[in-house]
């Protein structure tokens, strides 16, 4: 398309508008709706008379709901300030012989011209400033500016819509749910992205578009929970981005092989056996082969928005994780109260989720007042416990709080859950009969018992407490956190409370909930030991709508998918396979 074609497009767009003067209101409304859809602005029109004509038409329409000649003429004269005559401009546009049926074509051509002009200017400026030093930074800066143009001029869905505009897509989704669940009996099917654990999926029914807050106190598991989610998505082929603002990306990357292969990073950082280092390397290589996660350390929201746009549009991201919201730097710079800074960052991140139509899991920090109340009063947090800004809870589609069960923590300090201390292969082998305990000497026995207690004392009883959920229901799930392996494993929500003694006082605590695992994601080579001690009585949960027979068949299929993992039913005393 030539420059003359672009110039003609300006006249044609306004020529259609000129035809609406004194015309049918509904037709005029459709013309303005199309212009809004394409994001038409006054600065798109180079000729001053045409620019005044557009502004006057828009003001007249908004003020009167019509384009009657009297009001339009008056508005034009106010804009032009006598420099141009309304009649001359009107006649020139009518001579363009525009056709209303071709309005979409005219608008597309006009928009193309505008984008071309802006990009040409950006390229010219970039070439003038191009220097051999920091070429990567200059390219990134240019790409970000280009993204801003693309976003600014993109066709939006911001126009008015009616119920009929949403019906077809919504009905199709509901019909798919019917087919999957009631015809195919696939009760695990989700209308959204899955969590690693089906009990959490039962609460969310799949993560959908929106801002999802995962809040916790400092160093209490929110980054670990996010890393578990990322490893799971990587395994399941769900491409996503992870913005690690709180932690260096290389440190986050080291957690992926530890979670996947159950390797202790503390041991690796201190120095350990070649076998453990190889397991660590193997875990890295598994994650790399899957190739479904991208890490970034950027914290300013404009660069983040550009990377998210590129990730979703070019790399196929289906979700985004941000660690964490209070560290995101908003577009506006300068001194501002912390509350305002966080509020603007939250609004910007929510805008990213809405524009790109993907779920954004954003970590947040709970307030120190909550930490004090939890320790002193023992109550669970509310939405007001999220630090720095109430806007975080208001803007979110869901809010989940992670926090330790303080009474259980005190109880485990007295009675460590040694049956869950599956991490040390040698300790567990001696304890549960894989080798002959009779050959164990006094020193070995003492070392084994100390090691087992030491491992158990590191475990943390954590509640996954969904406080707000616009896309599902609220609820709580008990988890056990294994810090050495950056691993979360769900407890038994159906477990009961048991009377125990804590600090000399009798208390009813959810011991069975935390001392029995019901993990349906993580399969480890030590799980048969957990089965034998009743610490892993069954895998997973019964799904809503599922019969017990269907549940048994599903769990058996999932178990067959892990032939490398031994099970208690396949073992005999002495550790020999049947």
State the CATH class of the largest domain. Answer: Alpha Beta
Question: What would you call the shape?
Answer: elongated
CATH level 4 superfamily of the largest domain: P-loop containing nucleotide triphosphate hydrolases
Low-confidence stretches: 423-438, 571-578
Topology-level CATH name of the largest domain: Rossmann fold
Radius of gyration: 31 Å
Number of helices: 23
What does this protein structure show overall?
This protein is an alpha/beta fold and 578 residues long. The chain has 2 domains: 3-153, DNAb Helicase, Chain A (Orthogonal Bundle); 198-570, P-loop containing nucleotide triphosphate hydrolases (Rossmann fold). The protein is 51% helix and 12% strand. The protein is built from 23 helices and 11 strands. The protein has a 9-stranded mixed β-sheet with strand order 3-2-4-5-1-6-7-8-9, with helices on both faces. A hairpin with a 2-residue loop joins β10 (498-502) and β11 (505-509). The longest helix is centred in the first third of the chain and has 27 residues, at 103-129. The radius of gyration is 31 Å and the shape is elongated. The termini are far apart. Mean pLDDT is 82; it is low at 423-438 and 571-578.
Task: Write a short abstract of this structure.
This protein has 23 helices and eleven strands. With 578 residues, the protein is α/β, with parallel strands linked by helices.
